[in-house]
Design goal:
- It is a single chain.
- The protein is built from 1 helix and 7 strands, in the order αβββββββ.
- With 145 residues, it is of the alpha+beta class.
- The protein has a single domain, classed as Sandwich (Jelly Rolls), CATH 2.60.120.
- The longest helix has 25 residues.
- Helices cover 17% and strands 54% of the residues.
- Strands 1, 2, 3, 4, 5, 6 and 7 form a 7-stranded mixed beta sheet that branches.
- 17% of the residues are buried.
Length: 145
């Protein structure tokens, strides 16, 4: 009986570690260098997926970020940052949120080093995949500011 409890406890621990490592992996962003060139990303929203579609970028310097997106369907949208902090605490600060939007364009200042994420979820249940056309660019902040 004790062996079964230990075996089940080990399996639960393994599953928990896998789940948390997935969360960490899901929020790692691609490294980005400030550039005036637009970065174009086509994001596929899986019709049968219950998770939001997210694109993240690790930004360490102060930049101006311009972005826009177009979606085939209305999306619940948010743009947020997971700032780096001294205590390694998980935190989320939001720049923009919308309950139903198919396109948007905006500009922000990336004044907090961290992982910046665009997150999309369909407003209504879908029967086929859809595409979001996301583009963004980072413009380095002027020195001396």
């Amino acid at each position: 009986m004790k062996k079964n409890k230990k075996f089940i406890g080990n399996k639960i621990l393994q599953l928990a570690l896998c789940f948390f490592s997935f969360l960490v992996f899901a929020h790692e962003g691609e490294q980005s260098i400030a550039s005036t060139q637009w970065q174009h990303k086509n994001l596929t929203v899986q019709w049968d997926d219950n998770w939001p579609t997210e694109h993240c970028i690790d930004i360490l310097d102060v930049n101006t970020m311009a972005y826009s997106f177009e979606s085939e369907i209305s999306m619940k949208f948010d743009f947020h940052v997971h700032p780096n902090n001294d205590n390694n605490e998980y935190q989320t600060d939001y720049f923009s949120k919308s309950e139903s939007i198919a396109n948007n364009a905006d500009e922000i200042i990336t004044n907090k080093p961290g992982t910046y994420c665009f997150q999309f979820s369909p407003v209504k249940r879908q029967t086929k995949n859809s595409v979001i056309k996301l583009k963004y660019r980072l413009i380095p902040a002027a020195k001396g500011r």
